Amino acid sequence: MDLTAVTSQLLVGLSRAMILFIVTAGLSFVLGVLRVPNVFHGSLYMLGAFVAWTVAARLGEGPGSLWAALLLAPLVVAAVGLVIERTLLARLYQREHLMLILFTFGVMLVLNDLVKLTWGPDYRSVVPPPALQGAVVVAGVAVPRYNLFLLAVGPVVAAALWLFTHRTRVGKIARAAAVDREMVAVLGIDVSRVFALAFLVGCYLAGLGGALVAPTTSITLGMDHTIIIEAFLIVTIGGLGNIWGALVGSLLFGITQSVGLLVWPQFAIVFPYLAVVLVLLVRPTGLLRSVW
Amino acid sequence: MVTVAPPRAPAVRRPAAWLVAAAVVLAAPAVLPPFYVYLGALVLVMGLLAASLNLVLGYGGLYQFHHGVFYGVGAYALALTITRLGWPAWVGILLGPLAAAAAGWAIGVFCVRLTRLYFGMLQISLGSLLWAVALRWYPVTGGDNGIHGIPLPAPLQTLSGAYVFIAVTAGLAFGALWCIVRSPFGATLQAIRDNPQRCQVVGIDVRAHQLLAIVLAAGFAGLAGVLYVVLERSVFPTMLFWVLSLEIFVMCLLGGWFTFSGPLVGAALIVVLRAFAGRHTEYWTLILGTILILLIFFMPEGVMGFVGERLRAHGRGAVGRRSAGPAAGRGTPAAVVAEGDGAADPGAGREAATPPAADDAGGTEVARG
């Protein structure tokens, strides 16, 4: 096995981990602040990819079309999420987790068919913007420019999320609500609005992940099923509600998948699940501290 | 024919009624068109699967998130015994539930160390391992295509033959499940669900009971998988995918997962609805999702309020040392004040922050119960 193959495979795995991180960070944030295990988070990711395709297709071949898609799709997804939160989910916060899981599963089923109704069952694909096409040679290894772009976006999102939760007033309130929502409410803060905003941020991240993944994969129904289970497992091994845990878990997931592809391609899909199982057996409540 | 009637239990007062019911069920293939016979068999298969989940979910109070895995293991065990080993089908039919029970033990022994969401997530990851193997091990499992056209012995090749076999087996299995629920073991299991701490203190091995429940439930799920193969003669990896597991959950919820017959009713409703909706639309999951959302919104007190209270009791015991008093109206500012004396408990802050806090529904249930 030559070194360049290993390096390029690991870089692909890392950029995949960045997508996983962006999606998982949204799931983890919602889980931490709202305590809602949001099963339709994966559907929002799929929706983001389909909306990105539509925007890119409408704008045609122009160099700005994918940039516009990356900008617009997450906003559309966040709006959809906000509507669901305000009309339905907000009435259910007092229910226990099992009910919330089943409710969000119900929304996932509905969204799945709505996407099918809107876009049909065909595979779609999006071309990266011209500036990100092709590959650059880094240390003798050809790396697709788009993957390098993803590797840059991941840390930017992580930093932005950290700034939001630690440096803005509303972010701090959201973190406080994650620890003790009653206390926050007693202080005269409208927790309901904080929840809506937190959910909006979570959905935005799901949509962003979907839009970012669009040029690297075929956009299809069913992409929600895979991502959501991966995201839930990553959140669990990272520590529920812990954003850095989401990053660690995503890296573990992405890298073990790359290693699997190098070692035993046929069973590559088994490796990340194996890693998750091992982590859960050693540290059942996750690698980093859970906010629960 | 008589054997279909479930074994005598305290609540079975009229054996004659059971005999009539058994006769009606078994006479169905002679009267009904094949489509309905097929549908009836599918209802029994999915009903058994849902009832087996209910043993751990409703009676055990465990977050069994990936029950579908055991169904898949049972089905694959039969399929592989026949097609890969070339052994007689009857061996496979016996091996199916045993393999599923073994998988239940292997997964359960790790899961029972955890509680609630963590229990569920570990189970999903372990189950997903099996799913991934079934999906990728092409030479053995047929990969994502699965295995189709599994040869069965002559008596099971006709629809009516398969139906009778499924009806008799499922009937016996329901009887066995009923006996388990009514046995001292079943009573202990329900006691553990309601108050694990107290059970631990009086000397019950909580984890051993939960593990046995998982193994038994997995065995019955494996039997359902075997029956599915008898009916359809094919297996595919979707049987081990987590989406199916949540659908079984929905069946239990729809019928009422705190009752013995609820899961069967829920499974029947969903199987029949899907069959008829499938004739008119390809958007079945839209219908199922809408039903699920409506159910959660408009039947909160009925089936679910009751179960929720039970599961909450389970969860409360698992997380904190809070005494199991009726926790009314938590989640509101007033409730925080009302809970002032709870502040002395170091676990109270964490506990109060969790949303499963009882709402007014829980309060009324406690009052009523």
Describe the structure.
The complex is a heterodimer of chains A (292) and B (369). By secondary structure, chain A is an all-alpha fold. Helix content of chain A is 72%, strand content 3%. Chain A has helices at 3-34, 41-59, 65-87, 97-119, 145-167, 169-179, 181-186, 191-213, 223-238, 243-263, 270-282; strands at 135-138, 141-144. Chain A has a two-stranded antiparallel sheet. The longest helix of chain A is centred in the N-terminal third of the chain and has 32 residues, at 3-34. In chain A, 54% of the residues are buried. The mean pLDDT of chain A is 88. In chain B, helix 4 (89-111) runs antiparallel to helix 10 (206-232). Chain B is mainly alpha-helical. Chain B is built from 17 helices and no strands. Chain B folds into two domains: 25-314, no CATH class; 332-369. At the A-B interface, helix 4, helix 7, helix 9 and helix 11 of A face helix 5, helix 11, helix 13, helix 14 and helix 15 of B.
Brief write-up:
Helix content of chain A is 72%, strand content 3%.
Widest beta sheet: strand line-up of chain A? 1-2
DSSP helix fraction of chain B: over 70%
Find the count of extended strands of chain B (DSSP E, 2+ residues).
0
User: How much of the polypeptide of chain B forms β-strand, as a percent range?
Assistant: under 5%
Tally of helical segments of chain B: 17
Class from secondary-structure proportions of chain B: mainly alpha
Shape summary of chain A: globular
The Cα radius of gyration of chain A reads 19 Å
What are the key terms here?
heterodimer; A: 292 residues; mainly alpha; two-stranded antiparallel sheet; 11 helices; 2 strands; B: 369 residues; 2 domains; 17 helices; disordered N terminus; disordered C terminus
